[in-house]
Amino acid sequence: MHSERNVVSSELKPEVSLPVTFRYFLSSPSEVVEEDSSLWCSAFPLSRNPQETGENDTAGLTYGDYFEAVRKFLENREFEVIVSAIFASRQLPCKARDINAIDIFLVKHGQFYHPSRIEARVRGRVFTFVVNVALSFSGKSCIEREFDLLNRLSLTPSGAYLPRGYGYGEVILQKGWQVKLFLGEWFDDFHEFHISKDPKDQQYKIRVWHAHTEPGFLTPDETLELYRQIAMILTCCYNPENFEQIFPWHHAAGDFIVNCSNDSPRIKLITVRQYAALFETPDIDEITLLEGMLFFLVNLSIRTRLDRLDGVGEVVWAGLPAVDGTVRGVMDGLSAKVPRWDLRFEEFFASVSLLDMTEICEAVADSYHPLAPELPVVREHLTAHAAEMFASLMAFSA
C-alpha cells in the first residue's frame, strides 16, 4: 500500500481504548448491510449504468469485497489516513485509540469511482470524509494522478471550489484484486444534478438529486447561476499563459455538485482527472493567448450544454441559460483570477464576428473523437449554438 500524504503526529492523550466498530450501509442509515446478509455476497455493480459494464479486472466482486477494501484502507497503519485527515481538516490532534466507530455509506456507482461517505466517530464528535474507490481500468488509471492534482490545485485560488485530498492507498483483496482509493474532503448537503424532463410541462430542466427527498427542478434563474458558477470555477483553474486547464470533465459523470439550501445555488467541482494544456505552441504571443482563451470559452460553452438524460440516458443538450451563464462565468473568472486581463479578453471577444464564432465552433467539434457519442448532438446544434454564443457575447460587451 502506498504511503498516505499529509500524515502528521498528534499528542492528544486518549481515554479508554476500545476496538473500532465498523458498520456498513448503502446510501442511507436505514439501509444497513450486515456481513451475513445476502447483499454482502451479491455481485457489485461496476457501472452506474447496468447496461454498460466496461472493461475491468474485478468481475465477480461483491458488496462485501467493496466494504472490505474500504475498511482495510482506513485501518492501515493504525488508521493513519483518518488521523492525518482529522488534523489536516480541523487541526485536531488524535490517535487511533481515540476513534470509536466508523460508518461506511456507499454513495453511488460513478463512471470512474464508487465513492463512500465515511463518518468517523472520535470522542463523541463525527468527522465526515469521502473515500473514492477505483475498481475499473479507467478509474485506476487516473486516481493517483487525480489525488495529486487536487492537492496541487488546493494551493491556488481555485482550491476553494475543490475537495482536498488527505490520503492515497492501494489494497489487494484476498482474491488478488487490486483496489485503488483516496480519502478526501466531503461536501455536506451538496448533490448531483442532471438534465431531466419535468413531467408537469415536458420541458428539459436541471433536476437536483437530493438523497432522501423528492428531486427538485431549478428555476431558469437558478439554472443560469449554476452554469455561471461552473464556468467561473473552470476559468479560475485555467492558465491563460500556457493553456493548462481541467479537461476532460463531464456533467454526465456528476463532476459538479450543487447546494440549494440558500437563496442561490452553490457549486463545487469534485474531480480533476487531468490538468494539462489542450494544445502546445512554440511561440506564445498576445494574439495566441487571446485566441487560446476564445477556444477555451467556446469549448467550455459546448461541453457544458452536454449531459445524459437523468445521468444515464441519451445525450441531451441544455437550453439558453447555459450560454449566458457560461459567458458571464468566464468573464467573472477572468476578473477574479487575472486582474486587467479580463478587459483585454472582453475587447477581443467583442471583435469576434458571427463567421469567426461559427468557424471556431466547427474547430471545437472537429476536436471530438469521431465516435464520441456526443458528437452527433453537437453537430445537430452547432449552427444555432454559434449564433447564440455570438449574441450573448455582443450583449455582454454592449
Largest sheet, spatial ordering of strands: 1-2-3-4-6-5
* Assembly type: single chain
Helical content class: 25-40%
Can you tell me the overall shape?
globular
Percent range for β-strand residues: 15-25%
Average pLDDT score: 89
Number of domains: 2
Low-pLDDT sequence parts: 1-16
- How many strands appear in the DSSP assignment? 15
Folded structure, characterized:
The chain has 398 residues and is α+β, with helices and mostly antiparallel strands. It folds into two domains: 21-185, no CATH class; 191-397, no CATH class. 36% of the residues lie in helices and 20% in strands. The chain is built from eight helices and 15 strands. It has helices at residues 63-90, 137-153, 220-236, 286-303, 321-337, 341-350, 354-366, 375-397; strands spanning 21-25, 99-106, 116-122, 125-134, 165-172, 178-185, 191-197, 204-208, 216-217, 244-246, 256-259, 266-269, 275-277, 306-308, 315-317. A six-stranded mixed sheet has the order 1-2-3-4-6-5, sandwiched between helices. A five-stranded antiparallel sheet has the order 9-8-7-11-12, covered by helices on one side. A two-stranded antiparallel ribbon has the order 10-13. A hairpin with a 2-residue loop joins strand 3 (116-122) and strand 4 (125-134). Helix 3 (220-236) runs parallel beside helix 5 (321-337) and helix 4 (286-303) crosses helix 7 (354-366). The protein is globular and about 70 Å long.
